């Protein structure tokens, strides 16, 4: 501020007055003897020509009532910046798309495209069934890139999150004890490991042979079976390792026919001369079905607990297949699809679960949906000890091939369906000669199929195949 001013007394000018004085003072210097012109009369405040009115008056810089407009907030500035950035990125994407489209024009005639066209067409045809899971109004060419990108982002997020979980308790290692199984040699030179329970061969009233289920071994037998019960009824119980499981040698090209023959050779080698019973539990029941189909003359009967049927059986309608599949978890359905169409991918999943050498949860490894009773059973120490020993023996050889073979057997063509096992009239042939024979020499009606008893225990749900199989003239029981 400048001191002094009109009226004296040392009054200090305000900054309004100081700026106005600078405007009034033109700064022109006149020579000596020349009188400066008298300044024009100062207009009244607010009149035209008043510098204060021009500078601070109404309407300066477009202000109304001399009030400056409110500045933009940080939120508005950020919002405007993001909108502008999005518009620029959109234009950049359009430009890149145009460049790619122009670059791909005529690419079909290039050497690389010609070489890859055939393999890509084969892969596309094999994966075309996945398009059924897309909405009808979605173009697969646009939908699948989005699905793949989201899947990759989810994997990245899971890996990042898993890297931060340092407080999670690491699973224990599976303990695999030294080999100690009894083994017999089969006609083709392979060895099969087995375990006997119950009475000795000379005291046996019944002989029972049990193939185990998936991710199991001869040690499983029948869970919860008491030795005193076997002694009371005179049962000789024989459980064995499937090829490649436990201490049994792998089979070079096994199928359900070879599985039934292995069972027959085992019975002969152990001195089972009479007819024997076969017991199948869960997925092990496919080998019981195979015994009914291929060695029915040696069977006294069959018992199955929660048996599995082929979910891809051609004799089932779409409605029946839907009822069969709806009972399973999503992961279990995925494993069946992979076993059916892409079995080469199964070892990757197996090595990350039960072939990792670490202990895990039963329901996770087998993709099961357990009820309250089952979960309470898993919490018992005795069952956990039994389960760990059985799994460790199952993966003793550390090879994924027998597990892949077992999974493929479950969902591939069995070579028969359950209708072939039903009791039915034997076909006598057609023609006049057969009719005359039946008129003059009537023979007793003959039946084909397995004539022995089949007992099936299922908690609440029978598959359509089992229902169709059970309700035929045959000795059977179910509960």
Structure characterization notes:
The protein has 479 residues and is of the alpha/beta class. Among the domains are: 13-24 and 42-66, no CATH class; 77-105; 182-418, 3-Layer(aba) Sandwich (Rossmann fold). Helices cover 41% and strands 10% of the residues. The protein has an 8-stranded mixed β-sheet. It has a two-stranded antiparallel sheet with strand order 7-8. The protein is elongated and about 130 Å long. The protein starts with 14 loop residues before the first helix and ends with a strand. Residues 227-329 form the AB hydrolase-1 domain. Pfam families: Abhydrolase_1.
Summary of the model, kept short:
The chain is α/β, with parallel strands linked by helices and 479 residues long. The chain has helices spanning 15-24, 51-56, 74-104, 111-126, 140-164, 227-233, 256-269, 285-294, 318-325, 330-341, 346-351, 362-365, 372-378, 381-394, 401-411, 432-440, 464-470; strands spanning 182-185, 191-198, 206-211, 235-240, 276-281, 299-305, 424-425, 447-448, 454-457, 476-478. Among the domains are: 13-24 and 42-66, no CATH class; 77-105; 182-418, 3-Layer(aba) Sandwich (Rossmann fold).
Shape: elongated
Structural class: alpha/beta
* Average of the residue pLDDT scores: 77
Give the low-confidence spans: 1-9, 45-63, 466-479
Identify the notable features of this structure and list them briefly.
479 residues; alpha/beta; Rossmann fold; 8-stranded mixed beta sheet; two-stranded antiparallel ribbon; elongated; disordered N terminus; disordered C terminus; AB_hydrolase_fold; AB_hydrolase_1
């Amino acid at each position: 501020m400048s001191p002094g001013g009109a009226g004296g007394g040392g009054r200090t000018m305000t900054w309004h007055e100081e700026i106005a004085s600078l405007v009034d003072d033109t700064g022109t210097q006149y020579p000596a003897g020349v009188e400066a012109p008298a300044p024009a009369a100062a207009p009244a405040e607010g009149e035209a020509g008043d510098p204060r009115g021009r500078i601070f008056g109404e309407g300066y810089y477009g202000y109304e009532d001399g009030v400056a407009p409110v500045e933009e907030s940080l939120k508005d500035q950020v919002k405007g910046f993001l909108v502008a950035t999005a518009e620029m990125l959109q234009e950049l994407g359009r430009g890149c798309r145009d460049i790619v489209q122009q670059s791909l024009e005529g690419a079909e005639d290039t050497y690389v495209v010609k070489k890859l066209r055939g393999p890509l067409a084969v892969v596309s045809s094999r994966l075309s069934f996945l398009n059924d899971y897309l909405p009808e109004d979605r173009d697969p060419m646009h939908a699948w890139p989005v699905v793949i990108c989201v899947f990759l982002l989810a994997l990245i997020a899971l890996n990042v999150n898993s890297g931060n979980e340092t407080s999670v308790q690491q699973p224990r290692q599976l303990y695999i004890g030294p080999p100690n199984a009894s083994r017999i040699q089969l006609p083709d030179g392979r060895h099969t490991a087995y375990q006997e329970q119950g009475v000795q061969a000379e005291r046996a009233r019944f002989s029972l042979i049990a193939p185990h289920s998936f991710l199991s071994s001869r040690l499983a037998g029948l869970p919860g079976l008491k030795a005193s019960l076997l002694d009371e009824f005179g049962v000789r119980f024989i459980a064995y390792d499937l090829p490649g499981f436990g201490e049994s040698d792998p089979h070079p090209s096994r199928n359900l026919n070879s599985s039934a023959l292995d069972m027959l050779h085992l019975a002969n080698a152990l001195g089972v001369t009479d007819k024997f019973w076969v017991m199948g539990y869960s997925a092990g029941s496919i080998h019981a079905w195979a015994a009914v189909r291929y060695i029915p003359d040696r069977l006294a009967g069959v018992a199955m607990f929660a048996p599995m049927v082929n979910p891809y059986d051609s004799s089932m309608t779409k409605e029946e297949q839907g009822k069969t599949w709806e009972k399973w978890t999503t992961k279990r359905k995925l494993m069946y699809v992979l076993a059916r169409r892409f079995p080469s991918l199964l070892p990757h999943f197996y090595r990350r679960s039960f072939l990792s050498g670490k202990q895990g949860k039963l329901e996770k490894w087998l993709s099961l949906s357990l009820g309250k009773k089952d979960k309470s059973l898993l919490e018992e120490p005795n069952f956990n000890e039994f389960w760990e020993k059985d799994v460790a023996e199952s993966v003793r050889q550390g090879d994924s091939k027998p597990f892949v073979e077992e999974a493929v057997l479950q969902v591939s063509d069995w070579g028969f369906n359950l209708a072939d096992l039903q009791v039915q009239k034997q076909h006598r042939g057609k023609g006049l000669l057969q009719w005359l024979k039946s008129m003059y020499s009537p023979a007793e009606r003959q039946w084909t199929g397995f004539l022995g008893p089949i007992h099936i225990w299922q908690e609440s749900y029978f598959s359509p195949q089992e229902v169709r199989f059970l309700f035929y003239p045959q000795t059977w029981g179910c509960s």
